[in-house]
Amino acid sequence: MAAIRQDAWTSDEDELLAELVLSYIKAGSTQLKAFEEAGVQLKRTPAACGFRWNSFVRKQFREGIEIAKRERKNLHSIYQHSQKNHIISDNDMVKDVLGNEEVSNFFQKLDMTVITLAKTKMENQRLQNEIENLNNIVRENAKKMEAFDYLQSEYQTLLDILNHARERTTSKTVKK
């Protein structure tokens, strides 16, 4: 039995998990089967993959999931329509209408587009989080600067009082 990993997930692993789940959704298969495949490829348990998908990754790929579901539905309706009109046989559902190579190229481009979109969305989310963190740091620094300015003002007031006291003390001793 292969060793089961318990280390933190990387963004590459998240992307691979997303690619697998989205491709299984498009194909009309179950997410459980995708988790099993991901578990093998990532050397993690299917349960760990399912947990990671449901707790984190799925939120990053909402749009990709919707696209995959629409694609599955479109393919299903093409198939249903072709069955009603006897245009496409069971074995060659799309091949008879379009060339096999055209269909393959189309789906490869579509897969790459979905993957690119998902990666862009994840990067966008990461950058938004980074911007929020930087804004928090700027706000904290502004508060610290305000406190520093206040302390500097108080310090200057204290120095003025001490100088004034010294001048008065010096002038009284000189008069005596």
UniProtKB/TrEMBL annotation:
Entry keyword annotation includes Coiled coil:
yes
Coiled coil (UniProt feature): 117-144
Tell me which domain of life the UniProt entry assigns to the organism this sequence originates from. Answer: Bacteria
Is Transmembrane among this UniProt entry's keywords?
Answer: no
What SUPFAM superfamilies does its record include? Answer: Homeodomain-like
| Matches recorded under InterPro entries | Homeodomain-like_sf, RsfA-like, SANT/Myb
Indicate the segments forming the Myb-like domain, all copies: 1-57
Name the keywords, alphabetized.
Capsid protein, Coiled coil, Virion
PANTHER family hit by this protein: PRESPORE SPECIFIC TRANSCRIPTIONAL ACTIVATOR RSFA, PRESPORE-SPECIFIC TRANSCRIPTIONAL REGULATOR RSFA-RELATED
What NCBIfam families does the entry give?
Answer: DNA_bind_RsfA (TIGR02894)
Q: What is this protein called?
A: Spore coat protein regulator protein YlbO
